[in-house]
Design a protein that fits this description.
Largest sheet: none
Structural class: mainly alpha
Distance between the termini: 74 Å
Number of domains: 1
Oligomer: single chain
Order of helices and strands: HHHHHHHH
């Protein structure tokens, strides 16, 4: 029985590792975490221009707090899901009567874990309701300042 559990766990973990490896090929964390807000991009371009004229080091890409916490939440929740799958496979073979005890508390954990994605979600909702005319005016003002 233990050998069967071992084979199933190796197959499960092998598939997870293969899928993760394939998905992360060519993935750039800097681009994923960079702020996509046009105001931040223009401000960073202005800061680079200032740094170039002052002969100092140029600042890096602007990063978004909501994207960083979202990425952290994705990694934590993914790792938990992977571990939870391993625990369920093990219990399925060794103690099937314990599976209901394990699965009862998981939904509350996932609901509380979704709070890691809240900053990103609120940022997206805010961008949906922000006036685009106001955004354009701010971008034009910042671009004209950067040109000076």
């Amino acid at each position: 029985m233990e050998f069967l559990v071992f084979l199933v766990m190796v197959a499960y973990n092998g598939v997870i590792i293969l899928i993760t490896w394939k998905c992360l090929q060519g993935f750039d964390f800097k681009t994923a975490l960079a702020d996509k807000n046009p105001e931040a991009v223009v401000a960073m371009a202005w800061a680079r221009r200032q740094a170039a004229t002052e002969e100092s080091t140029s600042p890096g890409e602007p990063s978004s707090y909501s994207r960083i916490t979202g990425m952290f939440g994705l990694i934590v929740m993914g790792a938990f899901l992977w571990a939870f799958g391993n625990a369920l496979i093990y219990k399925m073979f060794m103690a099937p009567e314990d599976i209901s005890k394990i699965t009862n508390g998981v939904s509350a954990f996932f609901l509380s874990g979704s709070a890691l994605f809240a900053p990103y979600a609120f940022n997206q909702i805010k961008d949906t309701f922000t006036d685009t005319k106001q955004k354009k005016e701010v971008l034009q003002a910042m671009a004209s300042q950067a040109a000076k």
